[in-house]
From TrEMBL:
The protein, known as: Lrp/AsnC ligand binding domain-containing protein
Key words, A-Z: Activator, DNA-binding, Membrane, Transcription, Transcription regulation, Transmembrane, Transmembrane helix
CDD domains xrefs: HTH_ARSR
InterPro entries per record: ArsR-like_HTH, AsnC-type_HTH_dom, Dimeric_a/b-barrel, Tscrpt_reg_AsnC-like, Tscrpt_reg_AsnC/Lrp_C, WH-like_DNA-bd_sf, WH_DNA-bd_sf
Organism taxonomic ancestry: Bacteria, Pseudomonadati, Pseudomonadota, Alphaproteobacteria, Sphingomonadales
TM annotation in the entry: 47-68
UniProt xrefs under PANTHER family: LEUCINE-RESPONSIVE REGULATORY PROTEIN (PTHR30154:SF0)
Record-linked Pfam families: AsnC_trans_reg, HTH_24
Coiled coil location: none
Every HTH asnC-type domain range: 2-65
Length: 151
């Protein structure tokens, strides 16, 4: 179980994963040694699973954000496994979630532009194992995009 101090550490690290231990300790009213030990324990217990740099997709030619609903032709474990394995190998796919509802998977992907999306759809997505139908939603404006959990 984590306490209020652990939550303060986690909130701060979500905002700035590169903060020094000294600065983190000061912000959370801890000694540097106590702060370091708490962060070590939070990593060890799996609360902190990694540290990443958040990149600008526009500057890296990945400006177009798309969501794709995927409906499979069959819902059997082998089709699910084959589909999931294929998606994991696709660099343009940022997220893929099996969902309940009118379709089977929701994919979040980034590509350069509509021409790149057309190639992604025609050359890759529709050829994934078990895909019967897709529906694509191109994002016109990102209203909110965060990795910060409400803790």
């Amino acid at each position: 179980m984590i306490d209020a101090v652990d939550r303060a550490i986690l909130r701060t690290l979500q905002e700035d994963g590169r903060i020094t231990n000294q600065a983190l300790a000061e912000r959370c009213n801890l000694s540097p040694a106590a702060c370091h030990e708490r962060v070590r324990r939070l990593r060890e217990k799996g609360y902190i699973v990694g540290t990443v740099a958040v990149l600008d997709p526009v500057l890296l030619d990945c400006a177009l954000l798309i969501f794709v609903e995927v409906l499979l032709d069959r819902t059997t474990s082998d089709v699910f496994d084959d589909f999931a394995a294929a998606v994991r190998r696709m660099p343009a796919v940022l997220e893929c979630h099996m969902v309940a509802g009118g379709f089977d998977y929701l994919i979040k992907a980034r590509v350069k532009d509509m021409a790149a999306y057309r190639a992604f759809l025609g050359d890759t997505l529709v050829d994934l194992p078990g895909v019967r139908e897709t529906r694509t939603y191109a994002v016109l404006e990102e209203v909110k995009n965060t990795h910060v959990l409400p803790i």
